Amino acid sequence: MRSIPSPSLWHTLVAALAIVGLLGVPAASDAQAPPVSFSRQVAPILVRSCGGCHVTGRKGDFQMPSHDALMRSGMVQRGVGRSSRLVEVILTGDMPRGGGKISQADVNTLIAWIDAGATFDGDDPTVRLDALARGGTAAMPSTEAPVSTMPPMPDLPEAELSELRAVAGLALWRRAIPDEEPVVERRDGVCVIGNLPAQRLGELADTAADVAADVRKQLVADGPLIKGGIVLYAVRQAYDYSAIWQNVDRAERPRGITCHAGVSNEVVYAALFVPSSEPGPDLRASLAESITAAALAGRGAPAWLARGAGRAVATRLEPKAAIVQQWRREMQNAARGMQADALAGKGTAVDQATLAGGFVTAIAGGAKLRQFVAALDAGKACDAAFAGVFRSSPDKAYALWAGRVAK
Fold first, then answer.
1. What is the distance between the alpha carbons of residues 192 and 234, in angstroms, rounded to a whole number?
2. Which parts of 21-172 are beta strand (E)?
3. Would you give the DSSP letter of residue 40?
4. Which of 306, 288, 268 is nearest to 382 (CA)?
C-alpha cells in the first residue's frame, strides 16, 4: 500500500508545486488580490458551466438555484476551496458532463472565492443565480420558474408584434442551429421555423394553425391565443432537437421528451421533434401539448404547470391518440410510486410531465383553465391566479390530489 505524506509534508509539496506552476494556480504573493465577487464573477461561472443541469435543472437530485441553496447543499466548505466537493468534481473531470469544460481561470476564481469564505456580496442570498448572471436581482419564485422570463412587450398592433417575434425567433434558431438555414412558414398565430422539407413544413404549418385555433378555444374566451403569436420550431433529427435544448433552454435534453415550450426574451416558443410519419392524431396531440404549454409559459406560468396544462388540453382535443393512451398508462404506473414533492423536481422528466399532466387534467375540468388564463391576462401573479380559481395553493392542491390517486 502506498504511503501518504504527512500533512505538513503535503502542504510543503503543494506550495512548491504551486510556485513552479505545476498545479495551474498562481503562487501566493505579498500583494493582496482583490476579493472575488459572487454576484459578478462566481454566479456567471456557475450558470454558464452548470446552469442547465443544476441551476434551472435538478440533475442527479442536486440543484443550486441561489447562493443560499448552494451553501445548504454541502457542496461548498468555507475556507477550503480545493477540498470543497464543488471543486473536486471539476478537478477530477466528473463535472461538467456532456463534453463541457471549465477553464483553469474559472476554477481558480471558484477556489479563491471559497478560500476567502464563500461570502455573498449582496442583500438577498436567495436571489436566483441566473438573475445575478444577467445583472438582475429577482428573488426565487415560490414554484418552479420557466426557463427564462419575457420582458414587457412593446405596445404595438398585433401584426407588427407578430413580425417582431418572427424575426427574433429566426435569430434564436440561428443561435441554436447555426449551420442550417431553416424554412419559415407563417400562419395565423403561429410562425413555424424548421428544417423539414419545404412541402412537409408547409403541411405542418397548416396543421399547427388548425391546432392552435382549437387550443385558443380551450384557453381564451376572446382575443388571440397569445399576443404576438407563438414560434414553433420543428426539427427532423433528434440531435437538432437536443441542440435547441442546449442552446436555447441551456439544459441537456431530458430522455423521453420530444416536445416542450418556453420563453427566451421576447420569443414565446414551442419546439417539436417531428417524426417521419404522416400527420395524424399523435402529431396533433404533440402540437396541442407544446402550443398550450407555450401559451401558459408566455403568461408567466411555471414550467410544470405549463406542461401539465399542455397535456390536459391535448387529452381533451385528441383523446384517441396513441400518445394520449400512453400518457394514461404512464400515469397509472407513476401513481404507484407517487411522491407529494414530484412537482418540485423529483423523478425523471417523463415522470414529472406525467404527474403534472394527470394533476392538471384532474383539477382543470370545464372552464377552470380558461378562468385561470383570464386571471393571468388580468395581471394577477401565477400563485394568486391559481388560488383564485382552484381555491388552494399549487402545493396543497397537488398533495390532496396525489393522496387520492395513490390510494
1. 7
2. none
3. I
4. 306
Kindly report, residue by residue over 368-381, the tens digit of the pLDDT.
999 999 999 999 98
Question: Among candidates 383, 232, 206, 203, which has minimal Cα distance to 295?
Answer: 232
Phi, psi dihedral angles at 139 (to 5 degrees): -75, 160
CA 144, 145, 146, 152: dihedral to nearest 10 degrees? 160
> And the C-alpha cell for 41?
464573477
Report yes or no: 402 and 340 within 8 Å, Cβ to Cβ: yes
pTM, rounded to two decimals: 0.64
269 is written with which cell numbers?
Answer: 416558443
Nearest residue to 269 via CA among 285, 245, 252:
245
Q: Which three cell numbers stand for residue 381?
A: 401573479
> What pLDDT does 225 receive?
95
User: In sequence order, what are the residues at sequence separation of 6 or more whose Cβ sits closer than 8 angstroms to the Cβ of residue 317?
Assistant: 211, 214, 215, 218, 284, 285, 288
What is the rounded distance in angstroms from the CA atom of residue 124 to the CA atom of residue 126? 5
